[in-house]
Write a structure and sequence with these properties.
The protein is an alpha/beta fold. The protein has helices spanning about 5-15, 35-40, 70-80, 100-110, 125-140, 150-165, 205-220, 225-230, 250-255, 260-265, 290-305, 310, 345-365, 385-395, 420-435, 475-490, 530; strands spanning about 15-30, 45-50, 55-65, 90-100, 115-120, 175-180, 185-190, 200-205, 235-240, 270-275, 280-285, 320-325, 335-340, 365-370, 375-385, 395-400, 410-420, 435-445, 450-460, 465-475, 495-500, 520-525, 535-540. Strand 12 (about 320-325) and strand 13 form a beta hairpin.
Length: about 550
């Protein structure tokens, strides 16, 4: 069973305990519910809720995936204690009540030593009332499309789905739809889906909004918060296609209108409509004026794609233009004159922006994690000077220091990497192939997903590459003390230190290799994070 670590328990024990009874529960959300767009991060799944039954207030609420384990309800409970959402002080309850026996037993194990009674009740009146209110709000939410426009818009959208524009157009190949209809003059359409990830159309109300979004995405450098901010500041209408698990016809009929159900049954996807605006954020529905504009734009775009499919398949984005007369949804027997045209100049400009981004990415140093074997033992320490003299002669490979240095410290500062004999030999050969070892450094790093900060052990080889050899939790007192001694010793050796590669990962020699286990000694310089110039590093996926 998972248990709170000691520091967390001590922290929670220090909270003021109040004579309150809290209710906790997790419940499934309706698809497309208000919670899925307004709580946290537009996720769908289950809502975890903790309320103070004595005060009648919500202390914490979050949305988790349906397959999240019982740990999810604990995480939200800790938030309710330490960082309550309401304007109340952090506190620890005397008693909590849940309606699930399994959760009750799980919480009893996790919360031991916190003096919190965990009880079971078949019903939770306050939480029931809150969820009834939420469901009422969901039922009064405006429809995704106005009733009169559901069928015509879905027909036009299905035609676009069958056109598959993402197979011939990428996001940079912009198509202008000049409407002069309602309050909209021109929509600039960017097609999503060439990478096979998310299919759809973004219909920007201005070229400035489109270009600013691209620039902000490049400047965000994959930072989740900045990317979300850039996303919400777009000014566009959108149509996307949700490729979630396909529901059978009975489930579709229960969850939404027959028109949407028929669309999903025919295509295997579910269309989603909405609006993005810097002041309004994301709104997953269209009002009547917007629905009219989207309908006319989709019908004109479909006719354009049908007319110029072969020309659009060419690698070079051609200059094409055509005008269509589209039925006016707001007036019988009237037509709207719509001009649709490609924008090769804009595509070229956006391509140049992307190319500049790629060139910039090429200059960003990458911290590789494929040099040191993943199962290695590593540590910071010091070697007696007498042992160093013997080791220089005994190892299979020795990279000498570039200059002599004083031996005033209480030992020679070294990094030990210990692994199996074959892997140690391969590691030595890899470093030699990279021109040898240039420097050892410790650099700040963080995992933005877990918000954990690290002190990263880095090896720099002479070919300019940086390699991770170890991750140390930044606030770990043992590591803090080891780093302090390391810095003191390196200062006395004028920055000289060493890397020792040893065999004997298993058995009595693990962490304490003998001289005959040590296979290589690299004498190099220890440099500061500032000298290395990497800056704070963030964990992100890397594909070579």
């Amino acid at each position: 069973m998972n248990a709170l670590n000691r520091s967390t328990r001590r922290r929670l024990q220090q909270l003021r305990q109040v004579p309150s009874v809290w209710e906790g529960d997790r419940r499934a959300l309706m698809p497309q519910s208000l919670l899925s767009t307004e709580v946290g991060s537009r996720r769908q799944g289950e809502c975890v809720l903790w309320v103070d039954g004595t005060e009648g207030i919500v202390r914490a609420m979050d949305v988790v995936s349906t397959d999240a384990g019982p740990e999810a309800i604990v995480r939200v409970l800790l938030q309710a204690m330490e960082y309550p959402q309401s304007t109340v002080m952090p506190a620890r309850p005397q008693r909590i009540v849940v309606r699930d026996r399994e959760i009750q037993f799980f919480l009893r194990g996790v919360l031991q030593d916190l003096n919190i009674a965990v009880d079971y009740a078949p019903e939770l009146p306050l939480i029931d009332e809150i969820f009834r209110g939420l469901q009422g709000a969901i039922q009064t939410k405006p429809p995704e499309l106005p009733a009169d426009y559901i069928q015509p818009i879905l027909s036009a959208t299905q035609a676009i789905w069958q056109d598959e524009p993402w197979t011939i157009l990428d996001e940079e190949k912009i198509i202008a739809i000049e409407l002069n209809y309602g309050d909209v003059e021109t929509l600039y359409v960017s097609v999503l889906g060439m990478l096979g990830m998310e299919y759809g159309l973004l219909m920007y109300r201005s070229l400035d909004s489109l270009k600013q979004f691209r620039q902000r995405v490049i400047a965000a450098e994959d930072t989740p918060d900045k990317l979300e901010e850039a996303f919400l500041e777009q000014d566009c209408l959108f149509v996307t296609f949700d490729q979630g698990e396909r529901l059978d016809e009975d489930e579709l009929a229960e969850e939404e209108s027959s028109e949407f159900a028929a669309f999903s049954a025919a295509t295997g996807v579910r269309p989603c409509f909405g609006n993005l605006h810097p002041l309004e954020g994301m709104r997953p529905l269209l009002y009547e004026e917007e629905a009219r504009v989207v309908l006319v734009a989709l019908q004109a775009l479909h006719r354009f794609l049908q007319q110029y499919q072969r020309q659009l398949e060419l690698e070079e984005f051609p200059a094409l233009s055509s005008r269509y007369r589209i039925p006016d949804p707001n007036a019988a027997n009237k037509k709207v004159s719509v001009k649709v045209a490609t924008l090769p100049d804009v595509a070229e400009e956006l391509f140049a922006m992307s190319a500049e981004e790629e060139r910039g990415l090429d200059t960003i140093p990458i911290l590789r994690n494929d040099l040191v074997p993943g199962d290695s033992f590593y540590s910071l320490g010091a070697m007696p000077w007498e042992t160093l003299e013997v080791l220089r002669l005994a190892v299979q490979f020795h990279q000498e220091a570039e200059a002599e240095f004083a031996q005033d410290a209480d030992g020679f500062p070294v990094i030990l990497i210990q692994t199996s004999r074959p892997k140690a030999a391969a590691l030595i050969e890899s470093i030699k192939a990279a021109g040898g070892l240039k420097a050892i450094c410790f650099n700040p790093g963080e995992d933005p997903f877990s918000e954990q900060s690290y002190d990263l052990g880095v090896l720099q080889t002479h070919n300019g590459e940086f390699h991770l050899f170890g991750e140390f939790i930044e606030n770990d007192p043992i590591h803090i003390q080891a780093r302090k001694k390391w810095e003191q010793r390196c200062k006395k050796t004028q920055g000289h230190c060493g890397l020792v590669i040893a065999r004997g990962l298993k058995g009595a020699s693990r962490g304490n290799p003998q001289l005959n286990d040590m296979m290589a000694l690299f004498e190099v310089r220890s440099v500061s994070a500032k000298e290395l110039g990497l800056g704070p590093l963030q964990l992100m996926p890397y594909i070579d």
